[in-house]
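Form 7-S
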Amino acid sequence: MPTLTDYALAIRTEGSPPAPEGVRTVDLVLEEGDVISSTVGAMRSSGLTAADFRSPAIFLAPAGRHGLVTYAGLCGFAGRRIDAYADGVILRFSRLHHDGGPFPDSGEPDEALVWAQVGEPFADGVRCVALGPSQPGLVSPEAATVIRYAERLRMVPPDSSRDSLAMFVLVAALRRRSDDRFPFLSTGEEPVPVAEDDPEQGIDLEKVRQEAVRYRLEQGEDTESGSHHDERIREADAVDIRTLLRRLGSSSDGPDRDEWRCPRPRRHWNGDEDSSMHVYSDNRARCPGCDAEKLGPIRLALDVLGITPDEAASFILDSDRVVDMCAVREDA
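Output:
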């Protein structure tokens, strides 16, 4: 059973519960004004760096749905989902499967769905669906189609901090392409959308994520910079990515082939039997269906196993354990 003391970093915002003694704490103080700029500005002022997320980090969520904007920004800044503590419970979002593939949909709509809404109260003039215990498997095929294929999606979360965060992570995973796609945070009372980029539809959490990613890139915190942690990251990133792929259950058609089976078969309708992952001469690899860009060994391990960069370095350097991710699809 995880506890808050298992984390190296706790991140708070206004209304968050206190962190336990002995855990480093960072407070994000949002200024008045544009909520997106305020969220990124709070991260700038706090001194957070991308390196802080190489060890386990957790967001201490305030009551209600008020922490969703901050959580969206932290996920963008960290480059992955992070765990959250809400309503007295640790939510281990970092360990979840990255996509919503296990939830089948009813097929891609015949016509483009420009705007839709998930959550209640339902709004007139907008295609609306619900999640919850009354739905088969939590997400009905109809709801999965609307959430997955809508170009713009409003999300009306429940009042509970725990339930609103869980809904947000599920919706973002269902909308995932090469990365999670975040919805608009909505009250359900906004006017009927009149354009694709209608500014009156709530808070654009995807824009929050993108701005946080931009700030991380501005910092220049990546696997090329100093310190002992960075040295291990660089060492792990230099390991032949083919060795890592084999340990993740992947295979190629021959010893000198560059096409490998993607170790994320759940994201492929056929389990990636076509071997769509290409290994490049710079020791990086990319699956067009899963990755927006080429990944080195560290980032591949992060995405496939849902672990932190430090854990990825330990897995690559200190272990010879095989985690056959391709067998997961075959046994499903």
